[in-house]
Amino acid sequence: MLASDVGKVLEQRSLTLAVAESCTGGRLGDAITDVPGSSAYFLGGVISYGNEAKFSLLGVDRSTLESMGAVSEEVALMMADGVRKRLGASIGVGITGIAGPTGATPAKPVGLVYIAVSSSERSFSARSVFAGSRSEVKAQAVLKALEMLSELLSRG
Description:
Elements: H1 2-12, E1 17-21, H2 27-33, E2 42-47, H3 51-58, H4 62-68, H5 73-87, E3 91-97, E4 112-119, E5 123-129, H6 134-154
Parallel strand pairs: 1-2, 1-3
Antiparallel strand pairs: 3-4, 4-5
Helix pairs in contact: 1-6
């Protein structure tokens, strides 16, 4: 339902959306395109699972990837901004995280996800640690991204 609500506002305001996903593997794009008529506002997405794709397709700074790691606020913001600019969208979303069950470090637990939303006027991000299975972490990340889009759109 949230994807439909976000889509209605995007269409009413003649705004477009692009997404860059890592740990969600395309689930956000899938949720958006499940809405009939989403082609009116959804331009596309990039599944940038590996660091090279983040760098080459989205323009994420290589030194930031190396110093902060792929799972970081900085990278999520660069992913959102990069996909927005490269696809020519009004709004971009970037998602990066550790869906599990492996990949955790002492500083970055399983379930850690950074989500960023970018428009030409403002960008913001959120850090979340979701509990559950790999699939549940992905589902919660998609829901959080849609909530963040809704928040951006509700502010005008």
